[in-house]
Specification:
By secondary structure, the protein is mainly alpha-helical. It is built from 8 helices and no strands.
């Protein structure tokens, strides 16, 4: 039986998920495409892209897998807030236990890593790399928040949250770009702490 009310519910959920993913994509690429490449130039873009890929790409890949796993797991206990809270905290704890030691090691040994991989010319982005590692540590534990929203059937909350992040992100990067790559990386780290 075809019911418009069911279609409207699914369509609303789906459009909010799509909107949240689209805005999140803009959030994740705005710094690289506009603020670094266009405003700071291609050399800065190359240095920043290396530091960003070193710190954020593993997190992004792991986040995609975690979202696929966590959403159905959280959806099974969506009506039990206590169980959902325990599952969320356990998941965040496991993520932190897996990611933080690796990222802390990367933070400590960043100069050696840059020297071995690229030589002395990359040491100019040591602060950028370390700030992005801190942002990665903070973003790692926030990876599954969207899965909680989706499991609770609140995709509109996820969409609104990503829009709010974008609204805050643009002025922060506009201010940070005045201080070059360090300013952009610092803005991203502060925003990762707040988000």
């Amino acid at each position: 039986v075809f019911e418009w009310t069911s279609v409207r519910q699914l369509l609303g959920f789906g459009l909010n998920v799509t909107g949240a993913n689209l805005v999140n994509y803009v959030n994740n690429n705005l710094d690289k495409v506009y603020f670094v490449f266009i405003l700071l130039g291609p050399v800065s873009n190359a240095l920043y892209t290396f530091a960003y890929q070193y710190t954020m790409t593993p997190l992004t890949r792991a986040g995609q897998i975690l979202t696929r796993v966590c959403f159905p797991a959280f959806a099974k206990v969506q009506d039990d807030d206590a169980a959902l809270g325990r599952a969320y905290l356990r998941t965040v704890g496991m993520i932190a236990l897996g990611a933080w030691p690796i990222l802390a090691g990367a933070f400590v040994f960043a100069p050696e890593f840059l020297w071995v991989v690229k030589g002395n010319e990359m040491l100019s982005v040591i602060n950028v790399l370390r700030l992005l590692i801190v942002a990665g540590m903070l973003k790692a534990v926030g990876t599954v928040v969207g899965s909680v929203f989706f499991a609770k059937g609140k995709a509109n909350w996820s969409f609104r949250w990503t829009v709010i992040n974008l609204i805050v992100f643009v002025p922060a990067l506009s201010y940070g770009v005045e201080y070059g790559l360090d300013g952009i990386a610092f803005a991203i780290s502060i925003l990762a702490f707040l988000a």
